[in-house]
Amino acid sequence: MISGTLVKILGIVLLIVVAVVLILGIGTLFKGGETSKKYSNKLMQLRVLLQFLAIVALVCFAYFFKN
Asked: Cα–Cα distance between 54 and 7 in angstroms, integer?
């Protein structure tokens, strides 16, 4: 079974991944030009998907690994 430490590490990794994609998306948005048109919207859509997955995972962790 998954230990409590591994669950905490997975939760932190998920949150860091969401934060990195958010920062990349905002950076691309402010850069403007062709890069912004090509990647900004896709990065924000990816952020929303990753946020959803992170929230679902954290809720599952909280439900299955509550003390």
From this structure: 12
Q: Identify the band that residue 37 occupies on the pLDDT scale cut at 50, 70 and 90.
A: confident
DSSP string, 6-64: HHHHHHHHHHHHHHHHHHHHHHHHHH-HHHIIIIIHHHHHHHHHHHHHHHHHHHHHHHH
Burial class (CB in 10 A: 0-12, 13-18, 19+), 18: buried
CA–CA distance, 55 with 15 (Å, rounded to integer)? 9
DSSP type of residue 65: T
The alpha-carbon radius of gyration of the chain (Å, integer) is 15
Token duo for residue 24: 């990349």
